[in-house]
């Protein structure tokens, strides 16, 4: 068991249980994401020019969601291994910083993709 200066203890059995729970949840999520990616691929096969732009934006949004959930699982795995409250606080701070950086970049990419999809859809509509 780990003990910090405040007397906070995490029993080894609880740590093992938490780690197994995170691993099981991760596997279930990975299976779900595999099925979701397959469904997105199948939908894209039958999409036309207008839907292609929307599919790209949707796929990007799905990938962003997957990245954030993946980061949350990694954070949870690190958190259950923390030895004390100070480690937990440091992990939380690092996680939040990385997520904010990621969100900023993803917002820029998403905006560019959405703009391109709208422009492509407008061009396809004008050609008819």
UniProtKB/TrEMBL annotation:
Disordered as annotated region, ranges: 105-128
Stored InterPro entries: Phasin, Phasin_subfam-2
Domain Phasin: 31-127
Organism superkingdom: Bacteria
Protein name, as recorded: Phasin
Source species of the chain: Roseibium aggregatum
């Amino acid at each position: 068991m780990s003990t910090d200066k405040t007397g906070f203890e995490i029993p080894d059995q609880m740590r093992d249980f938490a780690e197994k729970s995170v691993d099981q949840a991760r596997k279930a999520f990975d299976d779900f994401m595999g099925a979701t990616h397959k469904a997105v691929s199948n939908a894209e096969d039958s999409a036309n020019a207008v839907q292609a732009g929307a599919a790209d934006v949707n796929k990007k949004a799905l990938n962003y969601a997957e990245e954030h959930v993946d980061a949350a699982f990694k954070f949870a795995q690190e958190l259950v291994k923390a030895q004390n409250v100070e480690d937990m606080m440091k992990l939380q701070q690092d996680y939040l910083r990385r997520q904010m950086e990621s969100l900023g970049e993803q917002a820029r990419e998403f905006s560019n993709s959405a703009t391109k999809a709208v422009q492509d859809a407008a061009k396809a509509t004008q050609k008819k």
